[in-house]
Write a structure and sequence with these properties.
single chain; 672 residues; alpha+beta; seven-stranded antiparallel β-sheet
């Protein structure tokens, strides 16, 4: 950072920041980004249970990985180029490591913008690109380290806002060049763009690219937002490498009175001399009682320097970094890294030449969440003694918190493994989204299949029901034909025969030479024949479902009048209209039961009087026949078989009893 010069610093004039933001919006509009890849075809081979198991395991793994925190913050954005034509050959960017180094991993971090809706977007990251290494400053051929068109593992899926991890063990180079295969076209102009946030070159835990010179044939200068040198300035779009989303405030803060002119400083004693790689300053994030404006990097100095020395008095210090006349841009929530370039020492001092102003008074502030000192890729500052030039103003935030290995984002993770975890999180999140989409698609397909099966089952049931109804209709028609044929036969045979007998008896009774004693007998035969003919016609009507000729009550009166000629008969029949609501079959069985009961009285009872009572209501039918004859055998009397059969066909209850005065009472009850 110390070699950036004046062209990278921001003017102190109030209108310059607005001009910078306006230039950013004009030069690099939002939305110039590649689309996310489609779901993998391999998901189609998984069962629903396997998808659910993988979703559960992916969620478990995501809970173990650190969060990718991208917040609206300060600091730089990175390297960008802005060309009128899609000429990738003029858009490459190169980092010079100053000498040939061995390395095993490259990390390419996309530039990330945050729009007014607080939505973070991957900005102008090339869909395909190459990385070439050059052995020396004069080497013009180089060798291929990575090609996204052939090595798809690092870009599966598209990196979105996460770092791209490229493993290249055993590689060595002095210069590393990133060459896009195509540039992203702006949606509102003919310009083409290419942007990156950071390039990191790891040899173990050391970032060899930090602070190294960057060159490009065409690059955009909008300090302090876009500059070629921002590709290796240590700023990335993520909050510091912590294990959690948020933790209670951790760090130390000093308040410098306005009348005190002594520059505040923080000195770390590492315990012994170390060759240093870099120094990292973690901004202090205050708790939620502070408004957002004051929460981000509260107390981070706009002017400071970092010195390394072997003596506590810094008599001959090595300067690692120093700001120029302009203010250092506040890092906000992000980590600020400074290359030590091999400076050696035991003591590290951060001296604020221009402390941050207090948000509420004329005093000044100097505060950090953690100060990390890295030697050979390993932090050597945890547990180091801390000496402050001024007393801390918050007792619960002692100086020891500056070297406890915890920042405002939780336990500090090693840079390399943290970036690898962020890349894995991107893979896991993309995989989880694909799994959920596949599961939802399976459910939708199952729902459609179930609906189709439902329609098919309904149609099958409908056809089956229609077939059953059709068979019943055919059977009813066959029964109807059988009944019609039987009725016709009864009408033709029995009706005609009985009518013929009645006519023949009438003719014989009218013969002149017929003896007079036979005439009453012949009249009786004629009457019985006519009655039988009427009964045959009634049976025919029942079979044809046309009901009885004179209605049930009328038929019962006629039957009683015919059979009870020699008896004193008392009829009491009520409910004729309700009786007509019985089915023809029920009427016929009731009439036959009635005739059978009266015939038994005529043939066997030797009775002189009969009392007949019928009561029909909406709930039941009750027929009672009482005679004064000799009664039936048994106590209670045994019902005749024909009466029991007719009662069973009526689904009625039959009771017989012997009145005290003698005779028999037949009681038939049917529930309606």
């Amino acid at each position: 950072m110390h070699f950036l010069g004046d062209e990278m610093t921001m003017s102190g004039k109030p209108g310059r920041l607005f001009q910078t933001a306006l230039a950013l919006a004009i030069s690099f509009p939002h939305g110039a980004q590649s689309a996310a890849p489609s779901r993998p075809d391999s998901l189609s081979r998984l069962s629903v249970s396997e998808i659910k198991e993988e979703i559960a395991s992916t969620r478990t793994r995501l809970d173990q990985l650190p969060q990718r925190l991208i917040r609206e913050s300060g600091g730089t954005l990175g390297f960008g180029t802005h060309l009128k034509a899609n000429t990738p050959g003029n858009a490459w960017v190169e980092v010079d490591l100053l000498e040939t180094h061995h390395f095993d991993t490259l990390v390419v971090v996309p530039a990330v913008l945050i729009d007014e809706r607080k939505a973070a977007s991957n900005f102008a990251f090339p869909e395909h690109f190459q990385i070439r290494g050059y052995a020396s400053a004069e080497d013009s051929t180089g060798h291929l380290l990575f090609d996204s068109r052939t090595d798809t593992e690092a870009l599966t899926p598209f990196p979105d806002r996460s770092p791209v991890i490229i493993h290249c063990p055993g590689s060595s180079a002095r210069r590393i060049r990133i060459i896009p295969n195509a540039l992203i076209k702006e949606p509102i102009s003919d310009y083409h763009i290419f942007a990156l946030s950071e390039l990191l070159v790891f040899d173990g835990g050391r970032n060899l690219a930090l602070g190294k010179p960057v060159s490009s044939p065409k690059w955009t200068r909008h300090a302090p937002v876009w500059h070629k040198q921002y590709l290796t300035d240590g700023y990335m779009p993520y909050s510091g490498p912590g294990s959690k989303t948020d933790t209670p405030t951790n760090g130390c803060r000093m308040v410098i009175p306005a009348h005190n002119s002594t520059p505040p400083s923080i000195t770390l004693d590492l315990g012994r001399e170390y060759p240093l790689d870099e120094i990292r300053l973690h901004p202090l994030q205050m708790d939620r009682n502070f408004v957002v404006f004051h929460k981000a990097a509260l107390g981070f100095p706009p002017g400071f320097r970092i010195d390394v020395s072997n003596d506590a008095e810094f008599t001959a210090p090595t300067r690692v970094f120093a700001t120029g006349p302009d203010n250092y841009p506040s890092p906000g929530h992000r980590l600020a890294c400074f290359a030590a370039n091999g400076a050696s020492g035991r003591f590290v001092r951060i001296l604020a030449s221009r402390p941050a102003p207090h948000p509420r008074n004329r005093n000044s502030l100097l505060a950090f969440a953690e100060i990390e000192v890295i030697s050979r890729g390993i932090p050597v500052s945890p547990g180091a003694d801390v000496r402050l030039s001024h007393q801390p103003d918050i007792k619960r935030l002692p100086p020891s918190m500056l070297t406890d290995g915890v920042s405002s984002n939780g336990r500090i993770l090693p840079m390399r493994s943290w970036l690898a975890d962020l890349s894995e999180r991107n893979l896991m999140e993309t995989r989880l989204a694909a799994l959920r989409a596949e599961l939802q698609d399976r459910y939708l397909r199952q729902s459609r299949t179930i609906r189709r099966l439902g329609w098919g089952t309904g149609a099958t049931l409908f056809l089956a029901l229609a077939a059953v109804l059709w068979q019943q209709l055919i059977r009813q028609r066959q029964i109807y034909r059988l009944k019609s044929d039987l009725a016709a036969d009864l009408h033709d045979e029995f009706g005609g025969t009985f009518s013929g007998l009645a006519l023949l008896a009438d003719e014989l009774a009218n013969e002149k030479d017929m003896p007079r004693p036979h005439i009453p007998r012949l009249a009786r035969i004629a009457e019985i024949s006519r009655t039988s003919a009427n009964n045959a016609r009634a049976l025919v009507q029942i079979l044809e479902s046309r009901g009885l000729t004179g209605g049930l009550i009328g038929e019962m009166r006629a039957t009683a009048k015919l059979l009870m000629l020699k008896h004193h008969c008392q009829l009491d029949l009520e409910g004729g209209k309700l009786a007509e609501k019985l089915t023809p079959k029920q009427k016929w069985h009731l009439l036959l039961f009635f005739k059978e009961a009266l015939n038994n009285i005529v043939k066997h009872a030797r009775a002189s009087s009969v009392e007949i009572r019928l009561r029909v209501t909406t709930q039941q039918l009750c027929l009672t026949i009482t005679d004064n004859g000799r009664g039936l055998d048994g106590t209670p009397p045994n019902p005749p078989a024909h009466l029991a059969m007719r009662a069973a066909k009526l689904n009625a209850k039959l009771d017989l009893s012997a009145p005290p005065a003698g005779g028999t009472t037949v009681n038939l009850t049917k529930m309606l």
